[in-house]
């Protein structure tokens, strides 16, 4: 992922380590991913989950 303005460090989206968390653990919204980045994540998820 590119360096996003609302994160202190460069980050990755771990599409192979998908998990759930409770709403209580979500403290606040940090920002919005650009559409291009979101599409790349969706594509990687489709590949990882063999959804074609």
Layout of helices and strands:
Elements: H1 35-48
User: What spatial form do the alpha-carbon principal axes imply?
Assistant: globular
* Sheet with most strands: none
Number of strands: 0
User: Which regions contain 5 or more consecutive residues with pLDDT less than 50?
Assistant: none
Strand composition percent? under 5%
Structural class: mainly alpha
Count helical runs: 1
Percentage of helical residues? 25-40%
Secondary-structure element order, N to C: H
Q: How does this model look, in words?
A:
The protein is mostly helical. 27% of the residues lie in helices and 0% in strands. The longest helix is centred in the C-terminal third of the chain and has 14 residues, at 35-48. The chain is globular.
Could you write a compact summary of the structure shown?
With 52 residues, the chain is an all-alpha fold.
Highlighted features:
1 helix, single chain
């Amino acid at each position: 992922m590119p360096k996003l303005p609302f994160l202190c460090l460069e980050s990755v989206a771990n599409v192979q380590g998908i998990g759930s968390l409770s709403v209580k653990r979500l403290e606040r919204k940090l920002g919005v991913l650009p559409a291009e980045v979101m599409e790349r994540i969706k594509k990687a998820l489709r590949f990882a989950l063999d959804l074609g």
